[in-house]
Amino acid sequence: MTATLVDAKPQQQALQATVDAHNTAQKSGAVQLGFVDLQARTWYLPTTKNQRDHLIHLSDFAVQQFTELATLREADRITGKPVAWVFPDRRATGPVCVKSFGKQLADRQSSERARLQNRTKSVDALVLESGRWTAHDLRRTASTLMSQLGISNDVINECENHIKQGMSGVYIQDRREAEQVKAFDALGQRLAKLMA
Q: Are 10 and 3 in contact (CB under 8 A)?
């Protein structure tokens, strides 16, 4: 998943074309476009794996993280503005490849003797006591933390954009937006405490 950190609605077609070209070059459809709007406190995913859009509320914690990421991004060579991608590729012309993102996480969960040439020197920056982890593990962690905070499974499933199964999936069309906002805010508060 890739996201832009700009008011991208007027640029959506151009950004989507960049993502489509990226996916063609990588021979995958792995990167999907999302739009982060810090003013509205939302991350909008027009297309997801299950073929439905998803609107994620950004807690204070999430806004802070996206704001810090924005300060790390280089300026576009032509416009002088920060590049549109939350995680840009090396040339800052598109999003980083999903496979590359995973490799970068893995490279930082290693040891100095296992360090690959011309890769990061921060080989143990992301090492955890419980072992190796992937970006997808963050979804499970978020769900677990929400559950520990007393958030109901149906709201957690909506936060994760899971489709309801069985008859409830057919008849209950409510996406529980207000409860999702509360859940993401509670998760953000918990993460802020953990980081403190």
A: no
Structure tokens at 155: 């709201």
pTM (two decimals): 0.78
Which two structure tokens, joined as six digits, stand for 147?
């559950």
Q: Judge residue 175's burial from the number of C-beta atoms within 10 Å of its C-beta, 0-12 exposed, 13-18 middle, 19 or more buried.
A: middle
For residue 85, CA distances in Å to 26, 107, 179 come to: 17, 22, 29
Amino acid 74: pLDDT: 77
- Give the span between the Cα atoms of 126 and 105, in whole angstroms: 7
Instruction: In whole angstroms, give the CA distance from residue 44 to residue 192.
Output: 23
Contact 149, 20 (CB under 8 A): no
Q: How far apart are CA 103 and CA 120, in angstroms?
A: 11
Q: How do residues 107-125 score in pLDDT, each as one tens digit?
A: 888 877 777 777 778 888 8
Amino acid at residue number 184: F
Residue type, 43: W
The two structure tokens encoding residue 168: 């409830």
Measured between alpha carbons, how far is 105 from 127 in angstroms, rounded to an integer?
10
The values of phi and psi at residue 45, to 5°, are -115, 100
**Could you give phi then psi for residue 86, rounded to 5 degrees?**
-65, -45
